[in-house]
Design goal:
By secondary structure, the chain is of the alpha+beta class. It has a single domain, classed as CBS-domain (Roll), CATH 3.10.580. The chain contains six helices and five strands; from the N terminus they run αββααβαββαα. The longest helix is centred in the N-terminal third of the chain and has 11 residues. The C terminus is likely disordered.
Length: 175
């Protein structure tokens, strides 16, 4: 199966570095997505921003007017990973697992945005068609291995025990 068989393509929402955060969040809410690809003036993918990226940026830039912040001010510095529409689903699963991302922009050979593929697309397809996307015991890429990797991406952080005192004290304004 190819990426183009399961990717979201039409209508495809995207933003630019100049898009205001408030507008990006409105698009996410209205279209029920958790990430938007970021494109340049030539429609080439230069990044992806998630709802989590926006939340963390707002917390970090709490002293700025949130309505004035734009995407280029919070543009994730991580290398953008993409797949091609004609790539096999196993290639997308491999990249999602390797880079521990749940979504990948789909591009053409010149890097122009053509769609998005997500673990949710793959999971929904597997459930509705009852199709097995890779045997869990297989050495190849599988949906189960990819989902497991996504849940492990933050497993290196320390878990705070219930009896520990918080290291950050919030002011009454945030409580």
């Amino acid at each position: 199966m190819k990426v183009k068989d399961l990717m979201n393509a039409v209508p495809l929402n995207y933003i630019t570095p100049e898009t205001k955060l408030v507008n990006a969040t409105k698009i996410m809410k209205e279209t029920n997505v958790g990430a938007l690809p970021i494109v340049d003036e030539n429609n080439k993918v230069i990044g992806i921003v998630t709802d989590r990226d926006i939340c963390l940026a707002l917390a970090e830039k709490a002293n700025k007017n949130a309505g004035e912040l734009n995407i280029k001010e919070i543009l994730p510095q991580a290398k953008i990973h993409t797949v091609k529409a004609d790539d096999n689903i196993t290639d997308a699963l491999h990249d999602m697992r390797k880079y521990k991302v749940g979504r990948l922009p789909v591009t053409d050979k010149s890097g122009k945005l053509k769609g998005m593929i997500s673990v949710n697309n793959l999971l929904s397809h597997a459930i509705t068609t009852k199709e097995n996307i890779g045997d869990v015991s297989s050495k190849d890429e599988t949906l189960a291995k990819t989902i497991k990797a996504l849940f492990e991406r933050n497993s290196t952080s320390k878990v705070k025990l219930a009896n520990e005192k918080p290291k950050i004290q919030l002011s009454d304004e945030y409580i």
